[in-house]
Design goal:
heterodimer; A: about 625 residues; two-stranded antiparallel sheet; 6 strands; about 70% helix; B: about 240 residues; alpha/beta; six-stranded mixed beta sheet; 11 helices; binds adenosine-5'-triphosphate; binds magnesium ion
């Protein structure tokens, strides 16, 4: 037991290093830095390589920390400062970075896990009861508190810290009294990177560097930050120690449930204190933003073309559009190749998934980075229904029900969170469920997933299975579209737009806003779970990746590309993202890097980090000169 | 039954020992006052006197630091905004608080469709929306973000009306309007008062005094005068605040 105790404390201190950088960046800059895991990964790899080459452990540690700090500063300086204040864009961009760095690390350092073995001379241990405990791990117990104190001193007691705090309170005033906010932001990111890199280096003797560790790191950082309270260093320390202890003691007492043991305290904290043990609700957001968008001039004829398209779209009549859609739907299996049919099936499934997110994010203004939860729930419900011998139609009902169950579960902890905090909470819940699915072999098949027998019946003799699936999915899509149209025309949609635009007024009118949000999340989960069920039939198995952050990020991308809050937006988004992915993955092995780059570019475009401007001189002066007093 | 008890105290809304502090600064410093049913009551005071804060306390936007609030003889001191709205306490906002993404009609139908409204007004949602639309004099299909400032203020009041409140709090409905628009809004307020009690904050005394049955003057978070309009305006202290 004493061993587990010391282990837990050492591990907890390492976790603190991991979480400290994340919480610093979120607390000061309100950026959810999904690339935090990449910083750790880069730090670990660099440290191992440097130490191996130079035979100096210290050189390794310093190199690892510096490399991660440089990457952190680079991300802020080149990408994030263009989209300040837009947490959705920041999340997508940093996920892009996560994908690219993970991919490149694999190219450069290979796919096998690397663990650093200390040279003989440094391998000391101290007696601990009847056992001996490695000294290097024990060192963590000293380093953790030292760093915590140093950070506290830096932020609370130094001139730089005072500037940072001033900039957090009011960016405009900070600028006015001569504090360079952009430089401070870079500094904070470098510091966050430094801490992550340091954690990577120190952890390289027992956690090591391997593909996928970046996602694990984000999961841990999230859990700690959510428990301790976003932005609170003290909270992070307490939560990290607690998580470290729970993890190491739990693993020895009840190994199968170790993930659950992480999960339970997080849920309990979220329900009792939505902002974490030591967190405070966020103050009014700082208003002053100095975007530095990249401006790309575009010739006039392209603009006229876009105008013509827009104009044309406004004049399409419904019956004609429906007939065209029907003809196109029939044409796909009749004239298209088998490959086209599969791609279209995929597009339709993801459209329904994206429609689900659009209801929540687009109409209701509730961002979610945990929508994979509903998709995965639907898929696993379908798989289980297959094992239970139920038909796929009942499987679909089960998928919707299971997703709604997951939604109720999510709302229990997320209903009171808003904006960036909501993003954080949905992500944390989904990530932990992902971890649970990954570890809980007996029920979920673990990382192998579930290969299940579920399929739709052939509609008539001689019909090929893929065409039969296509017809089923197309009909399901039509039904989903009808339901979606009904929603868009309903009074409920009106109220939901009200929630997005002006929640206080709805409250003052006597509406139960929480109930509206709950309904929206339920409806959203129903669409997403339905899509998840179809996806399970389509691929023939349900994998834990369905619950992963990549799934959530992908659907978020679709909704963002298609312009959240428009009726056809999610469909346009799903079709274009899947189309792009098919094209990109046929080009190269390194599709993750390319997709990551795509995410970054699209997010920068969609949120104004890059702007198309008209090339005409006259158009350069915007309308701000226009309001001449009339009448 | 309820009529009898209402008659007993005769107040639509009453506060006792009401205080509100933000940090160490006390903005409302002990207010005892009651407003009778079906009155047009004007509240004035210099900038920063605490008028908006007083409204925020009345409708539950802020929790008081001390004191007690009764609405229709029920203790609502710790009731959230939503519950007070259900009881029939309506308000408009100093800074127009509309649903910018929606049309005028949609805004009004959200207001008219609010819980308990149909029960209070005894009319269908559609009727309420139509009459509120007529009241506002706006085109129902226009998007709110394309309305002028004055039109937004008119819609703001129409939304207050559409909820068929028992008491309506109007926070500076005429601020920033032209003389003509002020006249229009004043007419609307008189129209409104046929069916509901009104508490009105206003800086434009010339227009507002004509509307008011009675008058309260707030100064530094306290009531310095309260009563019939002429009597209050003759009060030497009030004259000192207002005329220097
Ligand atoms: N949420 C708040 N936090 C801190 N101080 C506040 C808050 N709301 C109001 N105050 C302060 O309380 C005082 C009274 O404000 P209030 O808005 O009630 O004044 P008012 O009488 O409505 O003024 P005006 O005529 O300008 O509308 C002001 O000094 C204001 O700065
Ligand atoms: Mg005011």
């Amino acid at each position: 037991m004493a061993l587990q105790l010391v282990n837990g404390i050492a591990y907890g201190n390492l976790l603190f290093l991991i979480a400290a950088g994340f919480t610093l960046i979120f607390g000061i800059l309100r950026v959810i830095n999904m690339a935090h895991g990449s910083l750790y990964l880069l730090g670990a790899h660099t440290a191992i390589s440097t130490a191996t080459v130079t035979h100096s452990v210290w050189a390794g540690i310093i190199a690892g920390a510096l490399a991660a700090a440089a990457l952190g500063a680079l991300i802020e300086r080149t990408l994030l400062y263009r989209i300040q204040g837009n947490y959705l864009a920041q999340v997508i961009v940093t996920i892009g970075v996560l994908m690219i760095v993970g991919d490149l690390c694999q190219v450069y350092w290979g796919g096998t896990p690397r663990i650093y073995t200390l040279p003989e001379s440094l391998r000391a241990s101290v007696p601990l009861g009847e056992l001996r405990y490695p000294l290097d791990r024990l060192l963590l117990v000293a380093i953790g508190p030292a760093i915590a104190l140093a950070l506290w001193f830096l932020i609370e007691r130094t001139a730089i810290g005072a500037k940072v705090r001033a900039a957090v309170d009011d960016e405009e005033i900070a600028q006015a009294i001569g504090i360079s906010v952009p430089r401070l932001r870079v500094l904070v990111f470098a510091l966050g990177g430094l801490l992550a890199g340091l954690a990577g280096a120190l952890g390289s003797t027992f956690i090591g560097a391997k593909a996928g560790i970046d996602l694990d790191i984000i999961l841990l950082a999230l859990v700690i930050v959510v428990i301790g309270g976003p932005g609170s260093l003290v909270g992070s320390y307490v939560a990290a120690l607690a998580v470290g202890l729970i993890d190491s003691i739990g693993k020895s007492v009840w190994p199968e449930a170790s993930m659950f043991l992480l999960f339970a305290p997080m849920l309990a904290v979220l329900i009792v204190r939505p902002h974490g043990l030591f967190g405070k609700p966020p103050g009014p957001a700082t208003a002053a933003r100095q975007f530095k968008p990249i401006r790309i001039p575009v010739p006039d004829w392209i603009w006229s073309f876009i105008d013509v398209l827009r104009h044309g779209a406004a004049h399409v009549s419904w019956p004609v559009a429906a007939v065209v859609a029907l003809l196109a739907g029939v044409a796909v299996p009749v004239f298209g190749s088998g490959f086209l049919v599969t791609v279209v099936v995929l597009m339709l499934i993801w459209s329904m998934f994206a429609i689900g997110l659009n209801i929540m994010l687009g109409y209701g203004g509730m961002p979610s980075l945990g929508h994979a939860l509903f998709f995965g729930a639907g898929a696993y419900a379908m798989a289980w229904s297959g094992f239970a011998g139920l038909s796929a139609y009942i499987g679909l009902v089960a998928a919707v029900a299971c997703a709604c169950g997951a939604a109720l579960f999510l709302t229990a902890v997320a209903l009171r969170a808003r904006e960036a905090q909501l993003l954080l909470v949905t992500l944390a819940v989904a990530q932990v469920v992902w971890g649970l699915v990954f570890k809980w072999r007996s029920v979920t098949g673990g990382d192998d997933g579930l290969i299940h027998p579920q399929a739709f019946p052939l509609l008539w003799n001689g019909l090929s299975p893929s065409t039969s699936l296509y017809i089923h999915v197309a009909v399901a899509f039509a039904l989903a579209l009808l339901a979606y149209a009904w929603f868009a025309g309903s009074n409920f949609r009106l109220l939901l737009t009200g929630v997005r635009g002006n929640e206080p007024r709805l409250l003052a009118l006597g509406y139960n806003v929480d109930l509206l949000r709950l309904k929206a999340i339920l409806l959203s989960s129903a669409f997403s779970g339905f899509a998840g069920g179809l996806a399970a039939v389509y691929s023939g198995f349900a994998a834990p990746e369905l619950f992963g952050v990549h799934t959530s990020a992908r659907v978020l991308m679709m909704v963002v590309i298609g312009m959240a809050g428009t009726f056809f937006g999610p469909i346009i988004g799903a079709v274009s993202v899947i189309g792009m992915e098919e094209v990109v993955s046929s080009w190269t092995e390194r599709s993750n890097s390319l997709l990551g780059a795509l995410y970054i570019i699209v997010a920068l475009f969609a949120f104004g980090g890059v702007r198309f401007v008209r090339r005409r001189i006259a158009a350069r002066c915007p309308a701000s000169l226009a309001p001449v007093v009339s009448s | 039954m309820s009529d009898v008890s209402n008659a007993a105290s005769g107040a639509a809304i009453a506060v006792k020992g009401l205080k509100k502090a933000f940090g160490s600064i006390e903005v409302i410093r002990g207010i005892d006052i009651s407003f009778p049913h079906r009155e047009r009551h004007l509240i004035i005071g210099p900038n920063g006197a605490g008028k908006t804060t007083f409204f925020n306390l009345l409708n539950g936007q802020y929790a008081p630091s001390a004191g007690r609030i009764e609405f229709l003889d029920a203790d609502v001191t710790h009731m959230p905004v939503r519950q007070r709205a259900l009881l029939g306490l309506g308000r408009t906002f100093q800074i127009a608080s509309l649903f910018q993404d929606l049309s005028v009609r949609d805004n009004l139908s959200i207001a008219a469709g609010a819980p308990e409204v149909a029960a209070r007004s005894g009319r269908s949602g559609e009727e309420t929306v139509d009459s509120a639309l007529r009241f506002s004099g706006l085109d129902g299909d226009r998007a709110v973000r394309h309305l002028s400032y004055g039109e937004q203020r008119r819609l703001e009041i129409a939304m207050g009306l559409a909820t068929a409140p028992k008491l309506l709090l109007l926070d500076e409905p005429m601020a920033g309007l032209t003389q003509i628009e002020r006249g229009l809004v004043a007419e609307r307020i008189v129209e409104l008062s046929a069916s509901t009690g009104i508490l009105l904050i206003e800086h434009d005394l010339e227009v507002a005094l004509k509307l008011a049955d009675r008058l309260t003057v707030l100064h530094l978070g306290q009531v310095v005068a309260h009563g019939a309009v002429d009597a209050v305006m003759d009060d030497p202290f009030v004259r000192k605040i207002y005329l220097g």
